Amino acid sequence: MTLRELRPGQSGVVVAMRCEGALRRRLLDMGLTRGTLVRLLRIAPLGDPLEIALMGYELSLRRADAGKIEIELISE
Amino acid sequence: MEKKAALVGNPNCGKTTLFNLLTGQRQYVGNWAGVTVDKKEGRLSLGRLKVRLTDLPGIYSLSPYSLEEGVALGFLLDERPDVVINIVDAGNLERNLYLTVQLMELGLPMVVALNMVDEVESRGGRVDHALLQRRLGVPVLPISARRGEGVQELVELAGELCQRKVRLLPRVRYDRETAGALEEIAGLIARQVPEKRLCAFFAARLLEGDTQTAARLHLGDSLLAKAKAAAARYHPEPQQRQSRLADARWRLIRAGAAGVVRYPRREKGPGLTQRLDRILISRVWGLPLFLLIFFCMFSITFGPLGNTLKTLLEGLIGRLGGFFGGLLAQSGAPDWTYSLLLDAVIGGVGGVLAFLPQIMLLFFCLSILEDSGYMARAAFLMDRLLQGLGLTGKCFIPMLMGFGCTTPAVMAARGMGDERERRLTVLLIPFMSCSARLPIYALFAGVFFKGHENVAVLGMYLLGLAVAVLCGLLLRHTLFRGPGRPFVMELPPYRLPTLSGTLRHMWQKCVGFLTKAGTIIFSMNVVIWLLQSFTPSLQYTVQPEQSLFGALGRALAPLFAPLGFGEWQAAVALLSGLIAKESVVATFGVLFGGQGGLTAAISAHFTPQSGLAFMVFSLLYMPCISAFVAISRELGSLRAALSAALLQCSVAYLASFAAYRVGGMFLGGAVC
C-alpha cells in the first residue's frame, strides 16, 4: 500500500520510493528513505495535502506524491 | 585581512535570531548576484580579528535543486569561508544533522551550534553535546539564540577556527561499501579537485549522479567513464544509487544522534504544536480561523489603523509642501519651480511615501505569522486551490495581499516558494484589484449602475480573479511549462515571535522600499511631472490638455475608440493612473471641472457600455509606478517587468473590448 492510503492516526514504514527527479531528491533529503517510520496526522480541509510525522517533525506533501511512496502498515 | 564566516542551517532553526544576535546593528541586506534571494551580511570583531559573516539561506540539504540550495552551495565552494557556523535545532536533531554531514564533507573548518537546548530542557529532556562532538569530530556548542546563552563562546571558538588555532578531524564514517565506493571515486578525481579535502564531497556528488560536478571539475571522458563504472558497482541503477547513499547517510545520522537528546520519561500527551494544530488546521475550524486571522490582518493594514496613519502622513507631507511653497512664493521663484517642488518632488514622492505605514503594518503582521509558524499552516490550508495553476499554497498570501496594495504584495512574494512559482505569482498579483482602484469603480458604478453598485464592484473583483486564473493557466501552458517544484513543506513547531526580530524584519522591508522610493520612483515621478507640465513646444503650462500628457492622451485616444471611450480625457486619466490609481478620479475631476459636477460629466461623456469597459480596463491594465518598480525588482529585470506590463495592458484591452461588446447586448436598452 502507499502512504496516501493511510488513515489519519495510522503509521507505516517506508518500503520503496516510486518517484524520480526533484521530488525523489527532496523526499530523500527530508528523511523519507527505506525504513523510515511515518505517521499520517491529518488531511487538509480541502482534501489535499496531507500532514505526516517522521523523525520527530511534521511534513506536508500532496496526495499525488504520497501515492508514490510505498509503505508497510504497522498495526496499532 | 578580513576573515569570512558563513552561517548555515535548516529553515526554522533559529538562524535569523542567531545572526541578529551576532551582528546586531552592523548588518545589511542585499541580493545574491543574479537571483532574487536576500543576502544578509554583517560584521563581527573579535579583538583585532575582523570577520564578515554571511547568512546563507535556510536549507535542508546541499543538493542543488532549489535556488536557495544552489546559492548556499555556490558560496561554500567558491568563497571557501574561513569558518562555517552550522546551527542545528536540538529539538529536531536527526533531520538537521543531514545538512551537517554534507557540510562536513566540504572540509571547511566548522562548528556546530546546537540551538534550542533550553527548549528541549524545558520539556524535561537532556542534551549531551559532548557525545555529539566526539562522534562528529567537530566542536559542538550548546546555545540558546533566543536567550543569548552560549553565544559568546561560539564567537570565540569561531574566531579561533578562523585562525586555524584548532585542528579538526571531521569524520564522516559511512558503512564499508559506501566508504569504499567513495574512496575509489575520490582517488580517480583527486588530480582534478583543486583542494584535496574537497575530494570526499565531489566523490559523493558523482556517486549521486550529479552532472554539474563533472562539468565543474573538467573531468575528461575517460575519467568520467571510470567514475561511472565505480558508481555502477555501488548500485547499477542511478536512482537506487541515490537512495542507497541517502540511506547510508541517514543510518550514519541515526547512529550519531542516538542518545544525544534524551527524555528520561515518556512525554505526557501531545505537545503544544500538536494541540494547536488540532484546532488551527482541523477539518472544521481550519478554514474559518484562516479567514478570521487574515481578515484581522487585512483590517489592521488596510482598515482604519493603516488608513489613519496614511492620512496623517499625507497631511504631514502636504504641510511640508505648503511650507516650502510659501518659501518659494516669498522668494519670487518662477511658477514651474514651484510646481516641480510641490507636485513632483513632495507630491509625487510623498504619494509613494504614504504607502509606508501600510507596508510597515503588513510586514509586521506577516513577520509575526511567519515567525510563529502559522504561515506554513496557511499554505497547507490553501494549497489545494492553487494546484491547478501549477502554484503551491505558499503563493496564496501574497495574492491575497494584492487586494490591499500591489506593491507590498509583490514584495511579500520574496522567499515564498521557488523561483518559477514566485515569478508567476508576481505576474498574477496585479490582477487582484488593489484598494486604490475602488474609487474608480465607485464613481462609474454610482453613475451607471445606480442601486446595483455593490454587485458591479463585486463583479470587478471577481473578474480580476477570473482573469488571474485564466492568465495563470495560459502562462502555465506556455512560458511556465513543465512540472512544478514538488510541494514538500515542513510544518515547523509553533513558537512565540520575538519583538526585536519582527521589528527588524519590518525595518529591512521598509528600507528596501524607501531606497526604491528615493531613487527610481522619484526619477519616474519627475519624468511624469515633465510630461504633465510642459507643452510639446516645451512651454510650462498648468492646463493638462495642453501638456505633453494631453498630447499623448490625444494620440492614444483613437486606440481606445473600439472600447467605447475614445475621448482624450479618458486616455489622460488612465495615463495619470500610472502614477497612482487614485489619480484617475482626481484627473477626471480636473479635466471635467466646471461642467456641472463630476457625476454629470461622466454620464455625459460615457455610455453604460463604455463606462463598464472603462472600469474593466482600469481593473486590469498595468499597475502604478511603485508596483511596477517592485515587480521589476522581483522579476530581476526591467525587460521582464515591461513584458509583464505589456501583457497586463493587452489583457485589459481584450477584456475591455469584450465588456463593451457583450455589455452592449445586455445594457442595450439602458443607453442614456
UniProtKB/TrEMBL annotation, chain A:
GO MF: transition metal ion binding
Domain (Ferrous iron transporter FeoA-like): residue spans on this chain: 1-73
Alphabetical list of InterPro entries matching this protein: Fe-transptr_FeoA-like, FeoA, FeoA_core_dom, Transcriptional_repressor_C
Highest taxon above the source species: Bacteria
Coiled-coil ranges from the UniProt annotation: none
SUPFAM superfamilies on file: C-terminal domain of transcriptional repressors (SSF50037)
Key words of the record: Iron
Pfam families in UniProt: FeoA (PF04023)
Protein name: Ferrous iron transport protein A
Phylogenetic classification of the source organism: Bacteria, Bacillati, Bacillota, Clostridia, Eubacteriales
UniProtKB/TrEMBL annotation, chain B:
Annotated positions binding GTP: 9-16, 34-38, 55-58, 115-118
Binding site for Mg(2+): N20, T23, G24
Segments crossing the lipid bilayer: 284-305, 341-369, 424-449, 455-475, 513-535, 555-578, 585-606, 612-631, 638-660
InterPro entries to which the protein is assigned, alphabetical: Fe2_transport_prot-B, Fe2_transport_prot_B_C, FeoB_GTPase, G_FEOB_dom, Gate_dom, P-loop_NTPase
Membrane among keywords: yes
Subcellular location per the Swiss-Prot or TrEMBL entry: Cell inner membrane; Cell membrane
Highest taxon above the source species: Bacteria
The entry's keywords: Cell inner membrane, Cell membrane, GTP-binding, Ion transport, Iron, Iron transport, Magnesium, Membrane, Metal-binding, Nucleotide-binding, Transmembrane, Transmembrane helix, Transport
Domain FeoB-type G: 2-164
GO molecular function, one term: ferrous iron transmembrane transporter activity
Bilayer topology term: Multi-pass membrane protein
NCBIfam families referenced in this protein's UniProt entry, alphabetically: feoB (TIGR00437)
Functional description taken from the UniProt entry: Probable transporter of a GTP-driven Fe(2+) uptake system.
Family according to the record: Belongs to the TRAFAC class TrmE-Era-EngA-EngB-Septin-like GTPase superfamily. FeoB GTPase (TC 9.A.8) family.
Protein name: Ferrous iron transport protein B
Organism: Harryflintia acetispora
